[in-house]
Design the sequence.
């Protein structure tokens, strides 16, 4: 009992308010933060970055592994410094942020500053080290890679139309990042009468797709052929697709959710989500999968050949960021006013109209104020 | 070949957005309908929910604002709001 109490008390140990150390390695400066960046410590943080910028103008890595918390004042340091470095030919990346900091960066559209390949990755999900996109994932084609907000670098696969494929790879990465149980995601498309993998989050997943094409059976093939979704909740208990299932189990896959892609009411392929846990996908995940499949379908139907890869991917990325900002703001209003999502949107739109800004700006302003209030409150609490 | 009797389709043509561009804007605002469905709303081939209609209206109105205009497409709840302006 005494030991127990001692453990409890250890939670009350004083927290380090703020600490910063700098270290040079390779061509980079690593600025390691400890404790909290808030209104009090942000000026110190800013002056450290300023002096590094003035003296070296090298790439700056902000190591956030030991950062307990950061509020909007930290973002106001990071955003402008990132822009200054970029203009000077350098870069600012954020290493190992906590969930809270990552979320802050994502909400404020600075998620792409998060380092993609931290030196010591500790995420042994499906596909192991390949998942984080080291050079070996690009072996299949090696021509093109797509970076995503999630930090997942997707390998390129044999392509037909670059524009469409790049956009689909982005959808794949976003689906993987968004759907809770997803350990891997791919998109299969019918090309020249054959189903082909256009985007896959790693080599294991690409192999899962190939196993289905080779055995001529599997949930993705069924979804793409029949135009409705197929959910194998637990491959261990699955009686359909016996040849594919035995291969999949060998590779550690436990459940699969395949959602068809429809263009002009005809199935043209499927969005395939794999998990190494059984019963990984609930009704909410199925809804999300349907949304992402619908996005992918819209891209297929809408993508214009006169648009470049960057334009399509850029627009999609921007659209998704805006969506996220608006959805978060709606959530805040719903909680505060006790109203439905649609009513919250109307509220946001009316505020935007009244203040003469667009809905996204109105949503971002609301979030910024709420976030700094909450986080400052949290820091003092 | 529907006539542009739909206010939304008329507005889309006026602000010079393609169907694809309008869908991207609608989607960014949180819309859940596919591009094909949004196109059907414009041609009155499908009836959107009030919320979806307002999202399309917002997308069009924000484009109007970018071009220096005011909000020409009414929202479903505008009557309550704008009576005071008259």
Sequence:
């Amino acid at each position: 009992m005494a030991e127990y109490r001692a453990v409890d008390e250890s939670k009350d140990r004083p927290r380090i308010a703020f600490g910063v150390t700098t270290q040079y390695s390779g061509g980079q400066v690593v600025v390691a933060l400890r404790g909290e960046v808030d209104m009090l410590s942000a000026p110190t943080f800013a002056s450290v970055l300023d002096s590094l910028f003035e003296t070296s103008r090298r790439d700056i890595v902000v190591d956030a592994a030991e950062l307990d918390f950061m509020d909007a004042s930290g973002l106001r340091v990071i955003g402008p410094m990132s822009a200054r470095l970029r203009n000077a030919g350098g870069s600012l990346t954020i290493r190992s942020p906590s969930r809270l900091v990552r979320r802050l960066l994502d909400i404020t559209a600075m998620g792409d500053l998060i380092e993609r390949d931290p030196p010591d990755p500790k995420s042994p999900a499906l596909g192991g080290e390949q998942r984080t996109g080291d050079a070996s994932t690009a072996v299949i084609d090696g021509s093109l890679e797509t970076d995503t907000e999630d930090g997942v670098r997707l390998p390129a696969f044999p392509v037909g139309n670059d524009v469409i494929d790049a956009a689909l790879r982005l959808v794949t990465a976003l689906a993987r990042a968004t759907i809770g149980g997803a350990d891997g995601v791919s998109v299969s498309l019918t090309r020249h009468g054959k189903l082909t993998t256009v985007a896959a989050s790693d080599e294991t997943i690409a192999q899962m797709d190939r196993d289905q094409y080779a055995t001529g059976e599997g949930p993705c093939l069924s979804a793409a052929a029949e135009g409705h979704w197929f959910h194998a909740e637990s491959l261990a208990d699955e009686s359909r697709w016996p040849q594919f299932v035995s291969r999949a189990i060998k590779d550690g896959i436990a459940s699969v959710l395949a959602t068809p892609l429809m263009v002009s009411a005809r199935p043209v392929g499927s969005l395939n989500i794999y998990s190494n846990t059984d019963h990984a996908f609930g009704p909410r995940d199925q809804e999300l999968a349907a949304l992402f499949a619908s996005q992918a379908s819209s891209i297929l139907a809408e993508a214009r050949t006169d648009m470049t890869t960057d334009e399509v991917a850029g627009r999609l990325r921007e659209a998704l960021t805006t969506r996220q900002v608006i959805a978060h703001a709606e959530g805040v209003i719903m909680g505060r006013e006790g109203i439905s999502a649609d009513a919250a949107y109307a509220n946001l739109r009316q505020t935007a109209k009244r203040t003469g800004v667009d809905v996204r700006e109105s949503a971002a302003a609301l979030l910024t104020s709420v976030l700094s209030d909450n986080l400052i409150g949290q820091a003092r609490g | 070949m529907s006539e542009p009797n739909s206010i939304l389709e008329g507005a889309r043509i006026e602000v010079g957005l393609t169907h694809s561009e309008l869908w991207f804007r609608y989607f960014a605002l949180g819309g859940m309908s596919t591009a094909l469905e949004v196109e059907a709303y414009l041609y009155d081939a499908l009836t959107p929910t009030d919320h979806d209609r307002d999202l399309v209206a917002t997308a069009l109105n924000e484009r109007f604002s970018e071009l220096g205009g005011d909000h020409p497409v009414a929202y479903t709840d505008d009557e309550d709001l704008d009576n005071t302006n008259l």
